[in-house]
Design a protein that fits this description.
By secondary structure, the chain is an all-beta fold. The chain is 0% helix and 57% strand. The strands form two sheets. Strands 1-2-9-4-7 form a five-stranded antiparallel sheet, with no helix packed on it. It is globular.
Length: 103
């Protein structure tokens, strides 16, 4: 059993993570970042929850780039095949649940 205080988590570089759990080939990680990630499509589904800070999530829908502002408590579900990129607005901490070894 462990407790985590996401707002206190920091990392040496953007998108470094604190592993939380791994089960049934699914990983749960707390990420710290202050830089955008990269456009990508996960190997499976992804749940992306903003724990602290603000993130602008860009995603492609029918070939069109769209975005949504996400604040602490907001959750983004990327179904299989959803191309997306997260742009934090300053520092952000996000909980990511995805297939192990996904991008």
């Amino acid at each position: 059993m462990n407790f985590y205080r996401s707002k206190e988590f920091t990392a040496a570089k953007a998108w470094d993570a604190q592993p939380i759990a791994s089960f049934d080939k699914i990983s749960v990680k707390l990420h710290w970042t202050d830089q955008p990630y990269q456009w990508h499509i996960n190997d499976g589904q992804e749940v992306f929850a903003v724990m602290a800070g603000c993130v602008e999530m860009f995603y492609k829908e029918n070939g069109e780039v769209k975005s949504r502002q996400m604040n602490a408590g907001d959750i983004f579900y990327a179904s299989e095949g959803t191309e997306h990129i997260a742009h934090p607005q300053g520092e952000a901490r996000v909980l990511v649940i995805e297939k192990e070894d996904s991008i």
